[in-house]
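Morning run. Coffee first, then this:
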Amino acid sequence: MTKPYSQACENNKQPILEKLTPYLNKPLEVLEVGSGTGQHAVHFAAALPHLTWQTADREVNHAGIQAWLDDAELENALPPLALDLYHGWPVNQRYDVIYTANTLHIVSSTLVERLIAGAGRHLKESGYLIVYGPFNYQGEFTSESNREFDAYLKSQDKESGIRDQEWVLALAAEQGLTLQQDYAMPANNRLLVFKR
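And here it is:
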């Protein structure tokens, strides 16, 4: 099949990797929630071969993710798990790191709550939850482009939209997760790093 391609993933994969690397500097098991096209998985797994990178997404995206994995031929990037936040988490094990990019503003607020709660259940002690995407602060957009993006998202699905960083921090706190860093990223995005 033709591999799916996201220009945004291509643009942001290296800046994200640079911020991730200090947290992923030893053998760790990483679960990626919402692997999308698979571009992040192969880029990060190739750059950090000491990691075990477990992809996961809804089954509709599995063929595309697998196409990227097949081309990359990386031993440390694993075939996608079927993970649909509507239907709970398919995993019983705990992970050192749970990573998710560009998911919180796509899914409903209920599914954001389920994602954070699932991370709380499936992170090991001293594990990291790392979240990439756009956020509002004190209910305010950080840029006009984010305001326009939020309007577009809501026109597609009224349950979606850019989330308030403070709300996400409160959800994380309920799971015993504390914000360690909030990095400014290109294109008005952020990288939030939480630790159990």
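The helical segments are 7-20, 39-47, 62-72, 109-122, 144-156, 165-174. Good start to the day.
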